Structures are given as C-alpha cells and as structure tokens.
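Hello,

I think I submitted the heme C job twice by accident. Can you confirm which output corresponds to this input? Input:
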Amino acid sequence: MKHTALIPGLVLAMTLAGQSVWRVVAQETQISKAAEPKISTAKANSPATLAATTNVRPANGLASEAMVLLRKQCLSCHNQEKKKGGLLMVSRAALLQGGENGPVVVPGKAGDSLLAKVVLAESDPHMPPKKQLSEEQIALLRAWIDDGLKWDAAALAEVPAITIQPSQLRSLPASYQPVLAVRLSADGKRLAAGRGNQICIYDAGLTNHPILTRLEGHRDVIQSLAWSPDGKWLASGGFRRVMLWETQTFKPVMELTNLVGRVTALEFTPESDSLIAADEIPTKSGWIRVWTVGEAEPKLSWTAHADSILDLEISPDGKTLASAGVDKLVKFWELPSGKETGRLEGHTGHVWALAFKPDGSLLASGSADKDVKVWDFKTKDLKTTIGRHPASVTGLAWTHDGKSIISSCEDGAVRLCREAKESPDKTVGTADDMIYGVAVSPDAKTIYAGCHDGLVYVWDVDGKLKDKVGDPESPKKLAAQ
Ligand code: HEC
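Support: Only one job matched these inputs. Its output is below.
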C-alpha cells in the first residue's frame, strides 16, 4: 500500500556484494537549521489542540551538550538492548518514564531528580558505575534538567554536523522531480504524490485526475506520505522533518522535527490517533518514532534496524507494526508498546516494501534480491517466493479484495502477482523509468505508480494506461509545451 524510497539528491546505482543497490548522494537535501523555513500555523483552521502544540522548540545548545554527555557516558547501558535498571535514555519520553524504581527526572527541578543525584561522588548506586563525572559535567546535567529537559535527537544519535552554509542551499534542480511517494486516501477519492519537494493532491474520482492543490513547505525531496484512515490528516516526510496537514483546507498544522535523517516511511494507526515514522542514519541505524497525533514530542522512539528502514506497515488489526530494512530483515513490533515480537529472515537484499493481505493472514515483502516473499503472519513461515522480477522490487500493494499483490520494480514495470504462484501472473504496464511505489484503488481496478520521471502512471488492472499524471506547472512540462 505504500512505498518508500530512500533516494534524495542524485541517484547512483552501485554494485555491492553482488547486489544492485541504490546509494545516495544527498547534496541538495542538506538543510541548515537556521535556514529552515518557519511554518505559519493555521490556527484559524485547525483544532485548538493542534494549534497549541505547533510551536517547535528551537535548537538548543544546552540540550545538544547534554545529549552528547548522555550518549558518551550513559547511553551504552541505558539503551533499548541493555536497559540497565529498566531505564532507557533513547528519547525524552523514555527517560521521563524512569526505571524499575519509578521516575528519575523532574523537568525543571534538578534538586528533585534522581538522575542528578546518582552522578554525585558519594551516591549509591553511582553513575556511571565505574567513573566519576567532572563538576562541569554534573553542572551541565543539572542546568539541562532545570531548563526543562529539552531534547535534541540528532545530537543524541550523533548525526554528523551539518556543514553546509545557508548560502550554499539551492532549490532542487528542475530536472530532479521524482515521485518517490504516492498514496491514495482510504476512500480512494484523493491521490497524494510527492514530486520533488512539493506534494500534489489530485482528484482520483475523475478520469483526468485534475490537480486539487499543491502543498509547499518541504525544502527537499518528499520521501514518504500517509493519509490518516479517517481522512482528516495527511503526513509528509522529508529530511529531518514530518509535516502534518489537515485535509479540509490543506494547511500545515504541525511540524515534527528533532529527527536524525530522511523520513523514509510514514503510517497512521487504524484509529488515526497515532502517527509512526521511520528516520535514519544510513549504514548506522533506522529509527521508529510514534507520536500521538497533535503532540510535538514522540511518545516512543527506538532504533529498530541497523540501517535505514524502507517501509512500515501496520497489521489490519492494528496490533503489530512491521518494518523493512536495508539490513535485509523484516521485524515485528507490538503496538502500542514497541516491543519486538519477531523477525523474518530470508531476503538476501534490502527489503524495500511490505504489504499485508487485508484479512491479516499473510504479509508480502519485496526486496532488492528481486523476489517477493509471502509469509504466514501467524507462524512466520515462508509460504511462497514470487521470483522472476528482473530487478529490485521497490513497492507492493495488496488489493482490497485480497486476490492480487501488485509489485513495482526498478525496471519500470508494475506486475500482478498471486499469493501462491511462484512468478508474476502478468505485467500490468511499464513506465519510462524506475517506479518507486504503487497504490491501488479500493475497488482493486486502478493502479497508481510513482515514477522517477516525475509522473504518476495510472493503469487499469487489465493493463490499459488510463493517464499519466504530472504537474501542469512543473518546469519540465512547461518546457515541453
Ligand atoms: C556501565 C553501565 C552503566 C552506565 C554507563 C550508566 N549506568 Fe545508570 N545504571 C546502570 C545499572 C546497572 C543500573 C541499575 C543499578 C541499580 O539499581 O543498582 C543503573 C541505574 C540508573 C539509574 C536508576 C537508579 C535507581 O535507583 O533507580 C539512573 C538514574 C541512572 N542509572 C543514571 C545514569 C546516568 C545519568 C548515567 C550517565 C551519566 C548512567 N546511568 C550510566 C548501569 C549504567
């Protein structure tokens, strides 16, 4: 049902360990914090709850210094794997939860915070257990708690400093307008496509797909999109930022920052009350973060994979989140706890895409190893390997009637597969360039595919090309007219 692509900036194909993989040169996507445009909030149009939380904290020197200290002195024991004393320091929410003996920090009150006490020389237990922090380090921790425990996820995750000067920022080249993300609203009436750094919303109910509106606010390539199932929200992910749009007027109501890299996947939970995103430090870590819709701070965040996450899917019952990684794994996480409940090993290349069968019994995964694999969701057994894709499988969608799996492929083709057959049934259509992802209409009759050439290809399921949807105002189209 969705797709994700990890390709901003220029794209180069390389060969690594016999696999064709896509690597990234992200020149254009670097953003200086100082240069990020401020979003004017749409208080008049948005619910009070959202408007009230729209103020995004500025980057804070104290916070980033404290994060560096936590990372160097504390995080090795208080992370997702080790969790010493039951205490996690991977996010503000996790730290606020405290450890086995309850809360360890009171924001604004270092004097009442156990965290500030355990670092003192005479403390028992003493932290870090075999070291003594300096006076300055202790003073820094106290000042940071007194200042309200502001968080800087990038500093905690050790994201390389951004060195590009604001003056070096350029807009995206007119020729680089790939459609990396294409999503259909749950009712099938509206189609959202990221095109370069803009989002185009189309009327999917009309055969000529007129453009309804164009959303601007991201500086870099749109990597991911998600509609909330209730239709009220659209979320878009770029570099270190998620924007939330309300879908009556398509005004931005919220900006979620404090992320470490490109937002490679987005999903709303079935109740539309939480938003889940994946962001990444390529070759190091793939993060999953969960927000309550309307809140600026994630309630959960954890490193889920050892490299970028390329897709997220939620099981139809809403109880499990599945994540697909460059590390070749599919992992399952219980919702809302975020606890790992299983993993699928079997692909020999990046896992690019996931799709649940609508009845929740099966999960399909598509990979750079050119296979689609179909797994029994309950037993985690591999049921079928659908081979014979000539290149990486980049996107998957399972039709709502449960009958077919639609795959998109680096060769530009969209194919129709069956869960129990070992090769695709047929090629629905072929675009002029690489396809990054697919969406299918609720009646299973129409397929939308986002292409590197900046167009969304629309086929009916029998293979008739119905439309190629672009942006009438894009520089490319204008030049062609
Ligand atoms: C080498 C591993 C290690 C490092 C490094 C470490 N801790 Fe701990 N931490 C532990 C263990 C083990 C416990 C549980 C100890 C206990 O309850 O006796 C713990 C417990 C805690 C607790 C809870 C204490 C309680 O009584 O509930 C706090 C607060 C804490 N650590 C803070 C920190 C801070 C702050 C740092 C960095 C300055 C840090 N820790 C670094 C291992 C570590």
